[in-house]
Amino acid sequence: MKLFQYIFDFIKDILQNKAIFKSLIVNDFRQRYLGSYLGILWAFIQPGITVFIFWFVFQVGFKSKPVHDMPFILWLIAGMFPWFFFSDAISNATNAVMENSYLVKKIVFKVSFLPIIKIFSALIVHIFFIALMYILFMIYGYSFDLHWLQVFYYLFATIVLVLGLGYITSSIVIFFRDMGQLVAMLLQIGFWATPIFWSIDMFPAKYHILFKINPLYYIIEGYRDSMIHHIWFWEKPMLSIYFWVVTLAILTLGFSTFKKLKPHFADVL
After folding, report:
1. Which residues contact 75 (CB under 8 A, 6 or more apart)?
2. Candidate ranges 146-160, 172-186, 204-218; pick with highest mean pLDDT
3. Cβ within 8 Å of residue 164, ≥6 positions away
4. What value does the mean pLDDT take over residues 47-53?
5. Mean pLDDT across the chain, nearest whole number?
6. Which listed residue, of 73, 92, 163, 252, carries a Cα 20 to 30 Å from 46's Cα?
């Protein structure tokens, strides 16, 4: 099967060039915030302000009640934090090749590294927010539970999904420059269409399937299942199977699209 060959070659390339791969991730993370007075603190300030605004508007302003007997702020961050990672990773992965066009023309450089470097750069920030989420839950009096570790399973699922989407968008944007704006627009739609700051229970059960076909639903609810509901992913077998079928199909399409278009990158750039 082509997917297994793609994955095998991908992992092999990373392992053979792990020193370069690691240095590029660190360098990318630093460059994103180089030159600003607060530096990398912006990586944490911007998401923090967004969470504060939503908390203030819905809990303080609209007097939102606890969701599933959980303080609104904890329920909110369990959905917002994975979205921040997905949004940041896919946005940066889309422009990965464009931003590093000078590397594309270097024969010895693995161009396929560029999208994953952006994803792992965003991952550094997300790991911090996962730790912060754990701390906030404990501050509110919730003891550590084994289910909390399942967050890393859903984090892995997010990385695989973003990797597939990132390879598609980063290769197409070189030939179709409007792809960057299209991705930004779809992310805005996705934010409001995914139950991040609202609950799917607000809608009749017959409409739930419309939200569940969105792969992000699986991830957002997965974080909440881990932190709040204490439900293992295998307790939702059909939803898990659906997510991985769709995600692996996207990953296959991403690998094949990038591989077919890569020989033409240097000509266009």
Report:
1. 66, 67, 68, 224, 228
2. 146-160
3. 247, 248, 250, 251, 252, 253, 254, 255
4. 75
5. 84
6. 163
Residue 65: helix, strand or coil by DSSP? coil
Structure tokens at 121: 């750069």
Whether 87 has a pLDDT exceeding 80, the answer reads yes
Looking at 46-50, 53-57, 81-85, 105-109, which range is the least confident one? Answer: 105-109
Give the distance, in angstroms, between the CA of residue 118 and the centroid of all CA atoms in the same chain: 11
| Residues forming a β-bridge with 67 | 70
53 to 57, 77, 81, 132, 225: CA distances (angstroms): 6, 12, 14, 18, 24
Checking if the pLDDT of 74 tops 80, the result is yes
Q: From the DSSP assignment, how many helices (H) and strands (E) are in the chain?
A: 13, 0
Residue 192 identity (one-letter amino acid)? W
Model confidence at 24, in pLDDT bands (50, 70, 90)? confident
Residue 73, pLDDT score: 84
126 backbone dihedrals φ, ψ, rounded to 5°: -65, -35
CA distances from 23 to 17, 50, 122 (A): 10, 30, 15
Non-local CB neighbours of 172 within 8 Å, separated by 6+ positions: 179, 257, 261
* CA 137 vs CA 1, 133, 198, 227, 242: distances in Å: 43, 6, 20, 8, 30
Whole-angstrom distance, CA of residue 180 vs CA of residue 120: 20
Tokens of 27: 């360098």
Q: How many residues does the chain have?
A: 269
Q: How far apart are CA 164 and CA 184, in angstroms?
A: 17
State the Cα torsion 97-99-104-106 to the nearest 10°: -150
